[in-house]
Amino acid sequence: MLRCICLLISLWGGISWLAAQSRLTGCVTDKKGTPLEGCSVWFLQADTLAGGCVTDKKGRFELKGLPGGDYVCRVSMLGFKKSERTFSLSGDVKLPLFVLEEDSTQLDEVTVTGDKRDIVMSNAGSTTYFLSEHARQSRTSYEALAEVPKLIVNPIERSISLNNGESPLILIDGVKRPQYLEVLNPEWIESVEIVEVPSARYLGDESVTCILNIHLNRKKVTPYVNGNAYAQHSVTSKFGVIGASVETGNAKSSLYLNLQTFYFADDVSDNYTESVSGDIKRTDTFKHIYNSNSYFAGLGGDHTFSDKSYLAFSARYVAHPSDVENNGQGYVEYLSDGRRSDLVENAQTDGTYHLASADLYYRQTFAPQHTLEIAGNYSYSASTSMGKRNEVNDFFLNNHLIDTDNSRNFGKLDVDYTKVFGGKYTLLAGSNTSYSSTRIDDRVDELPVFIYDRWQEYLYVGFDNNRSDFKFKYTFSLGMDMMFTKADGVKNHYIDVLPAVALTYNFSQVHALTLSYKRLRFSPSLSMLNPRNMSTDSLYIQQGNPFLRPSYQDRVRLSYRLNYKKLYLEPYVNYTYSSKLISAIGSVTDNIYTNTYKNFLEAHILTAGLSANYNLPFGNLSVGTSFAKRFQDGMVFTGGGGWNSYLSGYFYYKQFSLSLNAGYLTASFDRNSKSEGIPWSNAALSWNLPKGWQLGVIAESFICPKMESKSWVVQDGYRSFSSSRMTDRSPRFLVRLAYSFKNKVEQKQRVKKRFFEQDNALEGIQVQ
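^ thats the sequence. predicted structure below, dont judge the formating
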């Protein structure tokens, strides 16, 4: 750790000459002397964009760190004529007042000569990136976001993740709008904020470890209709995706609709398993055949009653049927005397999942910079899971059937208050109240229904100065989580304190240093709590433990950001302390292993890594690598460390574009297990045709397609090894046809708030 910190300090010292600590200030008003907030202020040197900022509520702007020389300062704002002024920089400079004249004929935002991608802004716990004009002219928002550093965009699944593998909560101007990226016009994207240290406001939801907040242009709106439709189908396997989205709106209201479906048919992988339970060794070589369909329908919208009153809503329905079939053969052997018999096995699992959910949000402004927000959510989800397994050998026969019927009701109410002091400091406080009730019934056995009820009251408070223009920025927040649960008659209640702190020092616009800390807690899943056997294996019983409590992670991160011209560089060090880990334990009786869970372990994980991005004239290229080392008492496998590397690129030429993503995690470890992954890869080549049409070719898993993923488990009296290789998806090629239409209109100015995560707790309940 000390060596890494010294390296970061040395790097900063070696490159600090790149940015002299000059200070540029100025002010922008209209002809009446009214300060203009949100003006774009750009500084150009020899037609190259050297820096930029925006004006605050008083029309003031400030920029530090530009090297000496001759510059052009260009100020622009929609509805006004741009203004330029030349000056020489040699120390602190206060520019004369900029007075903008109205321009009623201006329809499009002023385009700045230069590359906005070169501008990166750091706040406490977050980093903001700007899109190029080429990205904003993309056909879809996924194409536009592909050029953002630290984002991995999957063109097949139409999903977005961070380069460390985490899936962010996606917000649009602070609002969670399910599937809105499908219909979002890329021209409206102003900037993209990646929040790696969410405040305690978001830590009540355990799935939120990072946030992707997409800021849109604040514009007036004329009536508009935007939409797109697409279809992509594999030419090497039975897989396809079809979707359509449309949005309509005006200055007061908006409404959008999304429809999507995908299918897998006879998706085949070759598998091998080997296990030892007590005195019995069993091997099995089998084909895994997977079939799946998914259907999604979403409806959302909002209405602005006045500048002080705003309402938004969202509703969605998801259906997901699937089935799996395994057909294999191997042998069973008694290790004590060497007796062996051939084994024939057939296993089948069928499942369905349904979700209906609705969200309602209301915002009221009582006074300038005083805001009260109220949001509610209700969802109902239901699933069925049926598994049967037949094993035939000379020693024993196994015919096991499990058939579960599951349902869950969930409701949540959020009340949030925000106050801004002096345009620089923000105080926020609020509460999240939720209740859920889950029922899991195995219709085959005669045991009572497993019932899990949970009531949660979460309170938080936070304070930050991220709205200021100070070099040193900070955010402090604290959440108190009160949980009351009843699992299969076992009552639990506990109180957790969840702090989050981020400190950022901007030496200049070129480089910054960030130190952060956050505490996360992870509640046990339903399958970990359910004490009923959910395994059809003749030698393996899987049971949950209703006495389980949450596990915790304390994460500390030190990172340095260098953004010099076209280059973005970020070395970092992470330390994670995991406590009260939910770990697998078990015992063997009559050669049958019973696996359950218990809170009793702790672990230390140290990660060091480097990510880099370079903006090319025809796209951008990102690379990164990290090494994680796990320290834990009693680890079965030696080493405990693994490399995680990735490469991502987006390139374009005229009407053609290419996105490329690839990565590889060498190994990951737990106390009793080890996994080796395979390289993942995807690429999409697109050709933009006239009148909104687009033709594309997509490739997936084309790097080392014959490699197998492998995993090992060693417990007291039990050990196993498994390997798997996808045959239909390695590699896979798809053809894509898409159509998009969008009006070149201006978007209305609105203040929004996130909705809630999709309720998918039941989707993971499956028979093994």
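The longest helix spans residues 2-15.
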